[in-house]
Amino acid sequence: MNLFEKQSRLNQFFAQSPVNAAYLAGALSNRATFGQLSDVDIAVLLMDQIKADQFLDYQLYFLSELAKRLESDTIDVVILNQASLLLKLQVIKYGQIVFSRNEKQRVTFETRAVMDYLDFKKFDEIQNQALGRRLHGNRLPIDKGLVQAFLQQLRTAITILEETGQQPREIFTADYHYYGLAERYLQLAIEACLSICSTLIAAFGLRRAEGYHELLSIVAGQQLIPRPLSYRLGGISECTRSARP
Fold it and tell me: Where is the Polymerase beta nucleotidyltransferase domain (predicted)?
């Protein structure tokens, strides 16, 4: 089977599946041909209507079907909908697009993934600095002034959110000034919470977080915040980031 036939089979298969985009990742993504199809990674972006509890089923299904269609048993499949921020960035940066159902939706996904990674990078840098100090035998103390600044940001945001929350629902939803103000300060409140979590993780030498949800779950695992609160904040964080243009 030549390269054209393999790409045609992939396009036909993904067009009949609930897939928005698919990428050839891994070592072969920069090659002109599929070669012997050794160490092939296919990264798949499922349609929005596919629920999280279905991701594993689709991953196994794609593994089986792609192995048959490409006549190879050395294929791996990654579901981008649940991939880490870093993995998404690597696929976008180094992967080769093999299927795109809707260019606008694909570009929107890639833009949001890059923005999310850049947003998270500042929290990641705090952890990198802490790791460097620990490797040199220096303990990283909690920066009291920094935490207090984040707490003040959180208090200010909560005050404004409480004020906007007093507006009747019909006025709030009809006036974009109220809606925009609330969205902005909700993002600032969540950012302050995540910054505090990142500072605590760095100071206590806890395991490295790879995404927003892990910042919260790691701190909750140390009983520094209630676990139900971490779930709620994580859900709100995901909603606010998904709502960004």
Answer: 11-103
The residues spanned by each domain of the chain are 3-101, 120-240
pTM: 0.56
CB 5 within 8 A of CB 82: no
Cα–Cα distance, 135 to 141 (Å, whole number): 15
Encode pLDDT of 138-177 as tens digits. 555 677 787 888 889 899 989 988 888 888 888 887 877 7
* Architecture field, domain 3-101: 2-Layer Sandwich (3.30)
Query: Which is it for the CA torsion 65, 66, 67, 69, positive or negative?
Result: positive
Burial readout 206-227 (b: 16 or more C-beta within 10 A, e: otherwise): beebebbbbbbbbbbeeeebee
User: Which residues lie closer than 8 Å to 20 by C-beta, 6 or more apart?
Assistant: 45, 46, 47, 48, 100, 101, 102, 105, 106, 109
